[in-house]
Amino acid sequence: NSIGLRIIRLSIKIHDVKMLTFLCFFFYRNNITIVQQRRASSSRHWEPQTSKRKISIPSVPKARWQPPYDKSRYRFTINPQLCSGKAGRSFLVLVQSASRNTERRNAIRDTWASPTKDSFSGIRLGFVLGTPRKASLNDKVLREADKYRDIIMSNFTESYYNLSLSTVTLLRWAVENCAGYDYLVKADDDAFLNLTALRRYLSDKPKKNSIFGYLMRGYRPNRQPESKWYTPQDLYNKSRLPDFVSGFAYVITADAVPQLYAAAKDIPMFPLEDVYVTGMCRER
């Protein structure tokens, strides 16, 4: 049940997890529970598959390519020792979050990522944040980080168009600060993960050169100016996006993480983070 999409240079395969949404992940967005998704249609333009609701946006900043990731420009302002100690670390779970989403992080700590859960054995959990614009919010995050010791913060400004930068920061942190895990699980902070089912699913799957997730194949760039995911012709002029996995949650084998991070240091950043990391960087 996998797609043998082998790339010549990185040789990272994408595995289309057809039932993963049912077995392992339940996603909550706008109070809509998504249990199972249909295969991506090649005739549609790209937008998240978790809601059919129209999103009204008064003004959409124009997305632009950003320079490739330059390590010298960024540092970790909060850097917990998540991977210290001798306990097993089969999963490194890094949740992409925003400073204002305190309640979401607390919900994750209290539910699927709670240390009291049987599935927590062999798990290391961290939340990756940028720097908020409000100083008062930054102070609140500092107190949260001191309490839970699971906040990873870098000195880029939090913004929708910095999501690719946030994900590359996540990859960098894993490369520089953690070893000995089998899989990196990247998730949004509004996703609910069944780690027990995920562990069971991955038990007989490859542990090398693989990305597991919901495969988005043959999607067209979104050319609708009113859309949050608007991709103008001058930003991306090809008729199809590269094959990628949807960004709400995906799994990367440990050996592929440094390869994707290295690619991000060479490839200009595209604003759609899942397309950029699991599509463009993978193809590099």
From TrEMBL:
Belongs to the glycosyltransferase 31 family. One of its GO terms (biological process) is protein O-linked glycosylation. One of its GO terms (molecular function) is glycosyltransferase activity. Keywords: Glycoprotein, Glycosyltransferase, Golgi apparatus, Membrane, Signal-anchor, Transferase, Transmembrane, Transmembrane helix. It is found in: Golgi apparatus membrane. It is a single-pass type II membrane protein. It comes from the Eukaryota. It comes from Ixodes scapularis (Black-legged tick). This is Hexosyltransferase. PANTHER family: BETA-1,3-N-ACETYLGLUCOSAMINYLTRANSFERASE, HEXOSYLTRANSFERASE. The keyword Lyase does not apply. The lineage of its organism: Eukaryota, Metazoa, Ecdysozoa, Arthropoda, Chelicerata. GO terms for cellular component: Golgi membrane. The keyword Transmembrane helix applies. Its main location: Golgi. Its EC number is 2.4.1.-. InterPro entries: Glyco_trans_31.
